[in-house]
Amino acid sequence: MSLESFNIGYRSAETYETMLPPHFYGGVEDVDIVAGIMRDVYGPHVPGAAGLRILDLGCGPGRVTEVLAPYASDLHGTDKSEGMVRQFAATFPGAKATVGDTESVVAALLGSGHAGTYDVVGSFWSMSYPLLECFEETGADGVFVVGERDAGVQRAERIVDGLTRLLGENGNLVMMFFDASSAEQQLVTSLWERVAPFPGTGRDYTWRLLEEGLQGAERKGRGSLTTSRLSGVAVAADAAAARDWFLIGHLNSFPDLINDPEVVAEIDEFAARHTGADGRVFIPSGVHVVHFRAGKGPADHLPSAAE
Asked: Where does the UniProt annotation place the signal sequence (predicted)?
């Protein structure tokens, strides 16, 4: 792959949709986890009836947005990739679609009077990137540290704080965030560390920053945080599809890694260890499911029949 192919899996909606394996957790696909949260909070959807203002950050081509859109009277999707936003806009022609990185988008929305205006803010598998970019930037020619670590922490804290500030009364922040301890992410971590170490505590640093930031918002009385960690699998059709998922999806077609025979061999060996009798590759995966409910007071945690 050429330098022009760097990060193609997240610039081209077609490439993304081709390489992405389905992810299952306890018999439920990741998209259906989000659908279940929406049903629990808002009930079975009647298209447009809920009349919600919904923001999907890092929306990609709109894969998860599909289960949010039926509840929305005002839908806004944002992504730093023009290709992804084009596909999102084509799928949801009535929605607002914005090209921009999450840090800039959140700051711009807050600066333009949108604090406290969204019923639902979503981010699905994408929030690790803007948080990591507070400390380092990755391009086709390498990984580069940006600024001092303390300044990076402050940037990350502003992003997380901004997410909760966008929520209106009783608004809901719903997120899926990769689990760094899964076998899948442990392999990805070891491969990327051939290029550069991760900041802070390592691969889990962005998760720790997110969780700590939302716990801080809870302590300030701005809402109630629930998180759960689910174990599951990403299912690749065969060894070649598993290799593509790692090379394009996880390693971003980064030339120094994907052109390294040792890296490819390590991925293939991992896939072989997790190949089933039917030839499919069951990649051990893990996800943190995050639900922050704005405006929840202590009494809201009591049983509904309590007085």
From this structure: none
DSSP output for 238-270: SHHHHHHIIIIIISTT-HHHHT-HHHHHHHHHH
What domain range includes position 188?
3-296
251: CB partners within 8 A, 6+ apart: 188, 191, 192, 257, 258, 263
Model confidence at 307: pLDDT above 50: no
Q: Is residue 243 part of a domain?
A: yes
Alpha-carbon span 242 to 254, nearest angstrom? 17
Residue 306, in any domain of the structure: no
Residue 307 covered by a domain: no
Q: For residue 295, which phi and psi values (nearest 5 degrees)?
A: 75, 15
For position 269, which CATH number holds?
A: 3.40.50.150
Q: Which of these, 249, 228, 227, 241, lies nearest to 274 by C-alpha position?
A: 241
Region of 106 (left: φ > 0; alpha: ψ -120 to 50; beta: rest) is: alpha
Q: What total number of domains does the chain contain? A: 1
Closest Cα partner for 57 from 138, 129, 7? 129
The structure's pTM equals: 0.94
| pLDDT, tens digit, 9 for 90 and up, residues 257-299 | 999 999 999 999 999 999 999 999 999 999 999 999 998 667 6
Residues 120-134, mean pLDDT to the nearest whole number: 97
pLDDT tens digits along 193-236: 999 999 999 999 999 999 999 999 999 999 999 999 999 999 99
In this structure, is residue 126 part of a structural domain?
Answer: yes
